[in-house]
Write a structure and sequence with these properties.
It is a single chain. The chain has a single domain, classed as TIM Barrel (Alpha-Beta Barrel). Helix content is 38%, strand content 16%. It has nine helices and ten strands. It has helices at 40-53, 74-91, 104-112, 127-136, 159-174, 195-203, 206-209, 239-251, 262-273; strands spanning 4-8, 11-15, 19-25, 57-61, 97-100, 117-120, 139-143, 183-186, 215-216, 256-259. The strands form two sheets. The chain has an eight-stranded parallel β-sheet with strand order 8-7-6-5-4-3-10-9. Helix 2 (74-91) packs parallel to helix 3, helix 3 (104-112) runs parallel beside helix 4 and helix 8 runs parallel beside helix 9 (262-273). 48% of the residues are buried.
Amino acid sequence: MFAWRWQIRNRKLRFNFPLIVGILNLTPDSFYSQSRCEGRSSALKRAKKLIAEGADILDLGAESTRPGAAFVSEEEEIARLLPALRDIRAAFPETPLSIDTRRAVVAKEALEAGADIINDVSSLSDPLMTEVAARYLPGLILTHAPRELASGENRDVSIDEIKRFLRERTSYAAGWGIPREAIVWDPGLGFGKTTRSNWQILLDLKELSADNLVMCAASRKRFTRRDPDKPESPENSGLEGTMKANLMAVENGAAMLRVHDVAAARQIVQGGNRA
């Protein structure tokens, strides 16, 4: 049985089966429309739904990270995020809250409003983000999504390349006094990687999970669809592929699954670890 521990701010999460991180998008343009929330009441309603379905953590994002997404200013990102964050924090004081942002200013405001975790897909590309993380000591998720992969053009990426990148970013963070126990690795499924690469990364995931806590975020991404070249639709759903990817992730040591469909992910976790 696994015995994972994750340091987030002033507490340590201890768990022996993968945690479910429910996605809550405070954006009008995130790639999966059913995850979008417009306004505080909609955000709080989705938070309640995700927790009722079994989410252990909520991940709030106010800027889309999909290729080609519209630029959002810091001010707009904060305006979208903070009212919903405060409402959800008040309603669910014990639920760890993660903020999906690449900006230090947004991270600081969110942490002061009660967030516990920073999910930085740019892996500390904002120099001030490291200072914020070192000061507040949140849980910190680092993603393999280098800038050259953010253009939307895909290439084959090996697990060794991902490991080298995340080790370097972790060493950089440690140099600022951020404890290794606070850091989670995300292999960056879907970020500039070919369909073949994404599935191979899941097969090779033990090479990452043997070194560090790993979160997999395959949910509804292009490579999980029946036809990756066509948009998500009922006829071209990514749900079946997502469940396959989540099962592979769990079997290969993932400590967390970041998902849109919490109930389906909970079945994977329970089936894979409590049979």
